[in-house]
Write a structure and sequence with these properties.
about 375 residues, alpha/beta, Rossmann fold, 2 domains, seven-stranded mixed beta sheet, five-stranded parallel beta sheet, 13 helices, 14 strands
Length: about 375
């Protein structure tokens, strides 16, 4: 009798454990269904961390706005930040960590890290949105990749035309960072400048993390260009420009917003930053005053062109309205249908490659201020 009672107690305990386990799993599943995870891969450490900080601020603000509107199909957005440290391999590692957590929507910054995960995203049918990759290699037709940033095909072409037609300069030295960002901008620029009739006197590159540019500078200085076309990241570019000034190499420098516009560039370049000209999206704060005021109030600073990261999440929200289960095939199809979306960074329409085209302008630096360029 005692043995029978003991067995009944054991069975009851096992049943209780099973019931508790089932309830726990059900609650966990219910909680998961109430959220949607979005991965945000960028540089959050090292010299490129300033870009990552802009991404974090914009995506957190976007997620908050989306959640206040009820989330994506009733599911609250949960952001998961992963640091690629400006490294393609680290981007792949970050992607795999996110996939292990069943993340099917990812945003990523920088050209080389983003390109490294494109094949993985397409294979896994993961929506991949980039807010800052400019490489033309990212432009692939009818797949899961989308971009809110202006790509090099537009940016570098505009720079070539500006130098040749507006500045009336025909002899250019090109110096660029040796990664997919630099190569993409450099190749498009050279192609278009030559078509116009311009002459490329010399091409010279440097590696990410370079501190001493004197040998690079002496090489391009010896070519005697009337203009230098510069592509790189803010830290390296600031040091390069400062060292050009120290070597009395004073010529026109034309660059782009990713390379120039930020406190990090000003800090490294010092007074040598004065007068640099660069291409930029034609961003105006009155394009979305609600976003502008909210960002200013939250972070105590004006937003910049990284509003592109904010827009990336809002475009996913827009696409999700016709995707009850947030299936990525549906999201992809709906993203391609988006036309004339009023984003914080401008009016956005995706073409067949998942790219956008926006108006651009040229700016310069005067008294440490980034202002419109006037001839």
């Amino acid at each position: 009798m005692k043995s029978k009672t003991k067995n009944l107690i054991i069975v009851a305990i096992i049943i209780a454990i099973l019931v508790i386990t089932i309830i726990t799993l059900s609650l966990t599943s219910f909680k998961q269904e109430k959220t949607i995870k979005i991965g945000v891969i960028d540089a959050y450490s090292g010299d490129g961390a300033v870009y990552g900080e802009w991404v974090r601020k914009n995506t957190e603000l976007a997620a908050e706005d989306i959640n206040n509107r009820g989330g994506l199909q009733g599911r609250q957005v949960e952001l998961i930040f992963e640091d690629h440290k400006a490294s393609p391999q680290e981007a792949v590692n970050a992607y795999q960590k996110l996939r292990f957590q069943n993340v099917n929507i990812i945003t990523c910054g920088w050209s080389s890290p983003t390109l490294a995960i494109v094949p993985l995203a397409n294979k896994d049918k993961v929506i991949l949105m980039t807010h800052s990759a400019t490489s033309p290699l990212y432009s692939t037709k009818d797949d899961y990749t989308f971009r809110t940033a202006i790509n090099a095909n537009q940016f570098a072409k505009e720079e070539a035309e500006f130098i040749y037609n507006n500045l009336n300069k025909k002899k250019v030295a090109v110096i660029y960072i040796n990664n997919d960002f630099g190569l993409g901008m450099k190749n498009v620029f050279i192609e278009n400048f030559k078509i116009l009739g311009g002459e490329i006197l010399i091409e010279n590159h440097f590696d990410q993390g370079t501190k001493d540019f004197r040998s690079n500078i002496l090489k391009i200085q010896s070519a005697n260009p009337d203009t230098v076309f510069l592509v790189g990241h803010m830290t390296e570019n600031g040091l390069l420009v400062k060292q050009m000034n120290e070597l009395d190499f004073n010529t026109i420098i034309v660059s782009d917003i990713y390379s120039i516009e930020g406190e990090e560039f000003l800090k490294q370049a010092g007074p040598a930053s004065e007068g640099i000209i660069y291409v930029a999206p034609a961003y105006e704060k009155d394009q979305n005053l609600e976003y502008y005021n909210k960002y200013l109030e939250r972070y105590g600073e004006e937003p910049n062109y990284y509003a592109q990261a904010y827009d990336g999440l809002l475009l996913i929200e827009q696409a999700s309205k016709n995707c009850p289960n947030l299936n990525t095939d549906c999201l992809k199809d709906e993203l391609f249908k988006i036309k004339d979306f009023p984003g914080a960074s401008g009016i956005l329409t995706f073409d067949e490659y998942g790219d956008v085209e926006k108006p651009v302008t040229f700016k310069t630096i005067k008294n440490r201020e980034f202002i419109p360029y006037e001839k």
